[in-house]
Amino acid sequence: MSNAPTPIQPPDAGHTAHRFFVIQELLGTPDLARFYTDLLINSPTTVTAARERQGFSKSTAYKYANTLAELGVAEELDEYETGSALWRADPVSGDWTDEMTLELGPAIIAVYGATSVDDDLELFVDRHGKAALAPAVIATLTYLQGETTRRGVADELGVPAVEAIAVTQAVERIIAVVKDHDPTLSDITFEVEVHDRAIEQGPYQRADE
Which residue, among 107, 105, 103, has the nearest Cα to 173 in the 3D structure? Predict the structure, then answer.
């Protein structure tokens, strides 16, 4: 009989794997990510209110709500508003490590979700691929912290200045709404103000504002 030690799985390995699966599912399904983001920033809210804000059919909205519940990132509460059950979504985040570590959280999920409704993001993805969005989000965060300019973002991403301006404007109006619900951004202070008018043009709106 071998005396080799039995491999011990880290206590949080299952939780880490689950978070990775959830993030992968959300990043791969933009409409689901968009519905999740709306629930998250407006929690608690009803499925009806979320679907009206995002333009989903009743059947699609409830399908997405149930999917999020199965993924463990949203739940139906024992509370009601105008006769409809309230739902709450929880932030999900995790690190993806390869040659570098990429911190994934609600902001990136929200941006990927918006690709199905934001023309600038859709065009950016068509030209550069979905994988290029994450660096665009990171570069926009750097810009919002006052550490670079939009032209600096263009140089960093290797895209024309006009594309960098369009994508950073699209991303910043999403981040401005999602930031308070993203634990990966809790220590970040923005030096660049995102105007309310710009936010109103974005795909996500807080119902209480």
Answer: 107
Say which residues have a Cβ less than 8 Å from residue 27's Cβ, sequence separation at least 6.
Answer: 33, 104, 108, 109, 112
Peptide bond into 44 cis (omega under 30): yes
**Model confidence pLDDT, tens digit, residues 27-52:** 999 999 999 999 999 999 999 999 99
7: helix, strand or coil: coil
Please name which of 102, 107, 140 lies closest in space to residue 20, comparing C-alpha atoms. Answer: 102
Task: Please give the C-alpha separations between residue 208 and each of 33, 121, 177, in angstroms, as whole numbers.
Answer: 21, 26, 12
**Interatomic CA distance for residues 139 and 152, integer angstroms:** 9
Instruction: Report whether 176 contacts 182 (CB < 8 A).
Output: no
pLDDT at residue 9 in the model = 47
